[in-house]
Amino acid sequence: MPNILLFIRTHTYVILLYIISIVIVCFLFPREGKFPYEFQKGKIWGHEDLYAPFDIPILKTQQELDVEKDSLLSAFVMYYNEHSEVAEQQKKRFSQTFDDQWKNSGLHDSVKNSLYQSIFTLLDSVYSRGILQDDDGSGSQSLSDQIVIIKNNIAGEGDLDDILTPKTAYELVMSSLEREDGDGEIPFVKSLNLNNFIQPNLVFNTDITNKVKTEQIGKVSYTKGVVPANRKIIVFGEVVNDEKFNILVSMQHEFENRVGASGNFKQIWTGQAIIVIFCFLLVYIYLMYFRPEIFRNTLRTAFLLLIMVLFISLSCIVVHKDYFSLYLLPYVLIPVIICTFYDARTATFIYMVTLLLVGFIAPSGFEFVFLNFVAGIVGIVNVKSIYRRGSLFKSIIVVILAYCVAYSAMVLMQGINIRQIDWMNYVRFTISGALIFVAYPSIFIFEKIFGFISDITLMELSDTNQPLLRKLSEVAPGTFQHSLQVANLAEEVIQKIGGNPLLIRTGALYHDIGKINRPGYFIENQAGRNPHEDLSPENSAQVIIEHVSNGAEIARKNRIPQHVIDFIRTHHGTTTVRFFYHLQQKQQSDKFVDRSKFTYPGPIPCSKEMVVLMMCDSIEAASRSLKEINHRNISDLVDNIVNYQVLEDQYNDANITYREINTAKHIIKNRLMNIYHVRIEYPKT
Q1: Cβ–Cβ under 8 Å, residues 598 and 577
Q2: Which pTM does this prediction carry?
Q3: Percent of the chain with pLDDT over 90
């Protein structure tokens, strides 16, 4: 019992995160029963003989519903409001303009009244027929030639062919006047610009039209006939054809509605809660036993749970609200993003658990899980270098192809007629695959929130044109060259024994950044007199040791991520500055020398990459002091330095094996021999 309490106290925040995640998912899960049978069109019915447990209304297919709705829309009429004041205002303006311009017309007054009356009558006629704006917002909502015109709150039917536009109304007026022209009035008529007095008086009524349209579509029946209770639906071994499939879908729909409407929520909720708890418990056990470094870190655990809860929540909302197809959600983002910060094994496990939970609420759950599983595995295999745009683009293409091929295979297996294939699914797969591009901004956001570091950031930091590295190359060129050599050496080692090459390369480039403050005190930057000649061994040791703390401080001020700063702090671990320590002992042979004053503050390396950097840094620096370069001297040098670090317990906190250490030693020896051009000694003749 005390052990359990201690475990809970130690992992309180992690346990709390799991509880919160479980509560959110359980709350969002739909409260409806799950149909107890799995079936697919064209497949053999593998369950016992099935009888209708109750009267089952047979649902119409989407195609049948679309035909009925199209039939309704073909006879559907649109509603317009007639604004009679428009005609009155324009005719009044016309009268005033006519009188004003008649004075300068040069026409005889005897034709004035007849011409005015003709134009006025024509204007009155076109306004009576009705004038519509060319683009009135009605679109193509109706295929009917009939419309309804609302005038003074009274609706009356009209013929769309009789309605005019401003252009056709103007042309009608002018053609009528030209036919009646007897005394040359047309030039005067044209000068009146009659098109200025022809304005739309019919306005499309969107609200009433949509209301009536919704009411009519709402009258469409979604069922056709009924399967009475106790009637046999399908027997074991029978093929699920189109008719049987439609009945089974109808039964599934009715079953889930009845269970939900029965109010048996406690039973449904209990089952869902057990499933959700069990799935999250699997994640908990996996991290505890196989990824303890994640399990012990509250922030890193929170990241994984957030990804799971986010996609499960979105799926629940989409299924409940029916906004769009689940296949539009980019589930492949889950393993892609997790792979960026963790390993592929963890990404695959978290992805599978998430898919299983979503599969319980997704329509055709098995099909959903299978398609996304295939696409996700392909995504994990291909997105190895997300920082390369070409690689990401290639992965998107491969993921889309994986979706399409897997879906096509399932369609062929079900024997679905090619005309009945939902071709929109291929569009959905394309959109879902293309959304993998969202990984770029998502990774940036997660980096900032959770303090992670991605390969993209590491690529940017390892660019030698970065301001801090540029300053190092200018102020301490010897240190800069040393850092480059260490980076190349460490990267080669970590690629062989396993690890993150970009991370160790970046750490190696910045590990001695603290030497910027006092570059002349480090031998690789000295070109003349050694300033340590003026210092005591203890003070010299302090100057050397300070480059670690100085480097960490400089890195923080320049906003270098903590992951890289850890390399700066651990690259000497808690080893001793042995040269000055022994020198102090020699100078004060009769006194006790406090070794702690000559010891780096640490901490010791806590990862494989940090251990490799410590090895390569010490070996590369020491190799420059070799007076005679040959196989034996290099081999002894590497063995002595690594053995010293092992004896000093510098590797105790890192997940590195003796086999990997020996492999690293072998690689470093070969690399140094190549650098110093050590050749085989030919036998004397």
Answers
A1: yes
A2: 0.65
A3: 25
CATH number at residue 492: 1.10.3210
Q: Note whether 293 and 347 are same-domain residues.
A: yes
- Residues in contact with 139: Cβ distance below 8 Å, sequence separation at least 6, in sequence order: none
Whether 354 is in a domain gets the answer: yes
Partners of residue 131 on adjacent β-strands: 164
Based on the domain organization, do 565 and 652 belong to the same domain? yes
Give me the amino acid identity at 657. Answer: T
Q: Nearest 5°: CA angle at 369, between 366 and 371? A: 105
Determine how β-strand 78-82 pairs with β-strand 146-151: parallel
Residue 280 lies in a domain: yes
Q: Answer yes or no: do 146 and 286 share one domain.
A: no
Phi, psi of 233 (to 5 degrees): -100, -50
> In angstroms, rounded to a whole number, what is the distance separating the alpha carbons of residues 104 and 179?
24
Distance from chain centroid for Cα 510: 32
**DSSP class of 33:** P
Strand ranges (E), 412-490: none
Instruction: Pick the last residue of a domain from 192, 217, 242.
Output: 217
- What is the Cα 313 distance to its own chain's centre? 15
* Contact (CB, 8 A) for 549 and 571: no
Mean pLDDT computed over every residue of the chain: 82
Task: Please indicate, yes or no, whether residues 368 and 469 belong to a single structural domain of this protein.
Answer: no
Residues in the chain: 685
The C-alpha atoms of residue 313 and residue 345 are separated, in whole angstroms, by 24
Segments forming the whole domain that contains residue 22: 2-29+264-450
Count CA atoms within 13 Å of residue 428 on its CB side: 15
- Of 211, 200, 219, nearest to 77 by C-alpha is 211
Please report the beta strands in 295-400, taking only residues with DSSP state E, as ranges in sequence order: none
With residue 226 as reference, give the H or E element that holds it: strand 223-227
The answer to whether residue 63 sits within a structural domain is no
Reported as a single tens digit per residue, the pLDDT across 287-300 is 999 888 888 888 89
Give residues with Cβ within 8 angstroms of 594, minimum separation 6: none
Half-sphere exposure of 39 (CA within 13 A, CB side): 29
- Judged on CB neighbours under 10 Å (0-12, 13-18, 19+), 523 is middle
pLDDT score for 22: 93
Indicate whether 81 and 123 sit together in one domain. yes
Q: Based on the domain organization, do 514 and 433 belong to the same domain?
A: no
Total structural domains in the chain?
Answer: 3
Looking at the structure, tell me whether residues 273 and 133 fall in a common domain. no
- Boundary-marking domain end, from 432, 450, 468: 450
pLDDT at residue 468, rounded to an integer: 92
**Is residue 205 included in any domain, yes or no?**
yes
Evaluate the omega torsion of the peptide bond into residue 477 and state whether it is cis, within 30 degrees of 0: no
Q: Do 580 and 608 belong together in one domain?
A: yes
Based on DSSP, count helices (H) and strands (E) in the chain, helices before strands: 28, 8
Statement: residue 144 has pLDDT above 70: no
What pLDDT is stored for residue 25 in this prediction?
Answer: 92
CA distance 165 to 171: 10
Question: What are the beta bridge partners of residue 132?
Answer: 202
DSSP string, 346-364: HHHHHHHHHHHHHHTTSTT
Which residue in this structure is represented by tokens 């005038």? Answer: 151
Give the model confidence (pLDDT) of 618-642 as tens digits: 999 888 888 888 888 889 999 999 9
Q: Which of 414, 417, 421 is nearest to 240 (CA)?
A: 414
